[in-house]
Specification:
Layout: H1 7-17, E1 28-31, H2 42-65, E2 71-74, H3 75-81, E3 86-88, E4 102-106, E5 109-113, H4 118-128, H5 134-141, H6 146-155, E6 160-162, H7 166-171, H8 173-180, E7 185-189, E8 209-213, H9 218-228, E9 232-237, H10 247-250, E10 255-258, H11 266-274, E11 278-281, H12 287-290, H13 295-301, E12 306-311, H14 326-332, H15 335-342, H16 355-375, E13 380-386, H17 387-395, E14 418-420, E15 423-427, E16 432-434
Parallel strand pairs: 1-2, 8-9, 8-11, 9-10, 11-12, 12-13
Antiparallel strand pairs: 2-16, 3-15, 4-5, 5-6, 7-13, 14-15
Helix pairs in contact: 1-2, 2-3, 2-16, 9-16, 16-17
C-alpha cells in the first residue's frame, strides 16, 4: 500500500503543479516534527511554500553548472519564520497593530476592522462616528449588522471583513470564484531573447534587479527571500508611507527609497523600471493604469520585464480588486470561524501567525524564480497570486491533532549581530538549506527611505 503523503508533501505537490512545469517533482527533505497550534496545517504550509521557493532557486543554480542540489526545510524554523525572526538587543519592536484594529461584535456576528493605515482608520471611525477609543468603537459596532458595517467601511475607503463560516464562504459568489482560480495565474509570452544562466550558482540571483512596490506583508516577504539569494532589491514607497511594525522584519537584504510617482519623481521611477529585471507589486487591478503605468506602458519601458503581482481576494468574481489583508481574508474565508469552533472560543480564532501573507510571499518568490528559469529559454512569464487563493490551499488541509513544536533556543539564532537601522539584533537561522547556495545576506534591515532611488 502506498503511504499517504504528509500535508507538507501534498501541499508542495499542489504548488509545483501550479507552476510553469506541472509535471515537476521536488527532491527536497522536510525535517523535524510538530505543528503550530491551529485548526489547519499551518506548519505544513510554511514548510511547503518555503520548500517550493527553495526548489525553484535550486533549479536556477543547477542551470548554471548542471549539478543538482539538495534542498532541506526545517519545520520548526519554517514555522518561526512565519512570525518574527528578529531579536532586538536593547530596543523593542513596535507593535504591528494599530490600537483600533481588531475583532468587534456586531449585533448579528463578528467583524474585523483593519486600521493600521491612517486613511483606513479614519474611514472606519468616520463611518462609526466615534473617536479613536476602543471602548467607543466597540459600543458603536454593536449597533450595526456586520455585513452592513463591512460595506459602509469599504465604501468609505477603509478595510473591514465580517466573519463567515467556511460553508458560507464556499457557497458565496466571491468564494466560488476564488476556488475556481488557479493557485498562480500565468501570462506567458514566447519569442524573447534568451538570457544566460546565473554566473555564480552559489548566488543564483546576483545582479538581478528587483523593483519592489509592495507593502505589508506578502510582497515584502517575497522580495526579502529574493534578496537572500543575492538579488538587488530596491523598494519604492510614497513620501508619506510607513509601516513601523513590520519594516525591521521584512527589509532584510534590501535598499529602500521614497519617490512620488505622481509628480517630480516620475522620470526617476521610469528609469528604474526600464532597467529592472523583475517588478513585484501589490497594486489592485487598474491602479497602475491610473498612474499612467499600465501594462502597455510598462512593456514599452521594459519589453522583457517579469512581473509578479498580488491582490487580496482573487482576480475574478465580484470581490476582484477589493481591499484586504491577511487577517481580513481569514475572517471572510471561514478560517477564524473554524478556529473559533475548534477551540471553543467565544471570539474569532485566527491562525497563530499571518500564514496567508507569509505563504503567499514564498509562492510569489517561487513564481518569480520559475519566471527567471523560463527567461533562459526566451519566455516572458507574468504571475498573479492572491491571499484568498492561498487560503483555499490551506483550508483543504484541516489538522486533527497538532503536536507541539519544540521551543526555540539560542542555538536557533544566527551568530552574527545585524546592525539594523533601529539598533543591533540577531535573526533566526534560515529554515531553508540549498546545497552550496547559502540563503543569506550581509545587508541589514533599514528604515523606509534610507537610500537613493537608483540601482
Amino acid at each position: 500500500m502506498t503511504a499517504r503523503p504528509t500535508p507538507a508533501a501534498a501541499m508542495l505537490a499542489d504548488i509545483l503543479a501550479a507552476g510553469l512545469d506541472p509535471e515537476a517533482r521536488a527532491d527536497i527533505e522536510v525535517t523535524g516534527a510538530g505543528d503550530l497550534d491551529s485548526a489547519f496545517a499551518v506548519t505544513d504550509l510554511a514548510a511547503a511554500s518555503i520548500g517550493a521557493a527553495g526548489v525553484a532557486a535550486s533549479a536556477l543554480a543547477t542551470a548554471a553548472d548542471g549539478r543538482a542540489r539538495a534542498v532541506e526545510v526545517d519545520r520548526r524554523l519554517a514555522s518561526a519564520w512565519f512570525g518574527f525572526t528578529l531579536r532586538p538587543h536593547g530596543w523593542d519592536l513596535p507593535s504591528p497593530w494599530d490600537p483600533i484594529a481588531g475583532d468587534y461584535e456586531a449585533n448579528d456576528g463578528w467583524i474585523r476592522l483593519h486600521t493600521n493605515a491612517p486613511a483606513h482608520r479614519a474611514a472606519a471611525l468616520d463611518v462609526l462616528g466615534v473617536p479613536a477609543e476602543p471602548d467607543r468603537v466597540r459600543a458603536a459596532v454593536a449597533a450595526w449588522q456586520a455585513g452592513a458595517l463591512e460595506t459602509a467601511v469599504l465604501d468609505a475607503g477603509g478595510c473591514a471583513a465580517a466573519m463567515h463560516s467556511e460553508a458560507v464562504w464556499n457557497a458565496s459568489a466571491p468564494g466560488q470564484a476564488v476556488r475556481a482560480e488557479p493557485l498562480i495565474h500565468w501570462d506567458i509570452e514566447d519569442g524573447a531573447p534568451p538570457t544566460s544562466p546565473p554566473a555564480d550558482p552559489a548566488r543564483p540571483l546576483a545582479g538581478l534587479r528587483v523593483l519592489d512596490l509592495t507593502r505589508v506583508l506578502a510582497g515584502p516577504v517575497a522580495t526579502r527571500f529574493l534578496a537572500l539569494l543575492g538579488a538587488d532589491v530596491l523598494r519604492i514607497d510614497p513620501p508619506d508611507w510607513d509601516e513601523p511594525g513590520v519594516t525591521p522584519e521584512v527589509m532584510l537584504g534590501k535598499r529602500t527609497a521614497r519617490l512620488d510617482l505622481r509628480r517630480e519623481d516620475r522620470a526617476t521611477f521610469e528609469t528604474l523600471l526600464a532597467s529592472a529585471d523583475l517588478l513585484v507589486h501589490g497594486y489592485r487591478p487598474g491602479a497602475l493604469d491610473g498612474l499612467g503605468l499600465g501594462l502597455d506602458a510598462r512593456r514599452q519601458l521594459r519589453p522583457d520585464l517579469i512581473e509578479v503581482t498580488l491582490d487580496a481576494y482573487g482576480w475574478t468574481g465580484p470581490w476582484r480588486g477589493r481591499r484586504g489583508f491577511d487577517s481580513l481574508v481569514q475572517m471572510s474565508a471561514g478560517i477564524a470561524h473554524t478556529g473559533m469552533g475548534r477551540f471553543g472560543s467565544e471570539r474569532p480564532r485566527p491562525l497563530p501567525v499571518q500564514a496567508l501573507d507569509h505563504a503567499t510571499g514564498y509562492l510569489m518568490a517561487f513564481a518569480a524564480l520559475q519566471s527567471l528559469s523560463a527567461r533562459l529559454a526566451g519566455r516572458i512569464a507574468r504571475a498573479r497570486l492572491s491571499l484568498a487563493r492561498t487560503a483555499a490551499l490551506l483550508t483543504a488541509y484541516p489538522l486533527a491533532s497538532p503536536a507541539p513544536l519544540a521551543p526555540l533556543t539560542p542555538e536557533d539564532l544566527a551568530p552574527a549581530v545585524e546592525a539594523t537601522g533601529w539598533g543591533p539584533a540577531r535573526r533566526l537561522n534560515s529554515p531553508l538549506t540549498i546545497e552550496d547556495a547559502p540563503v543569506h545576506t550581509d545587508r541589514p534591515a533599514m528604515p523606509l527611505g534610507s537610500h537613493s532611488g537608483a540601482w
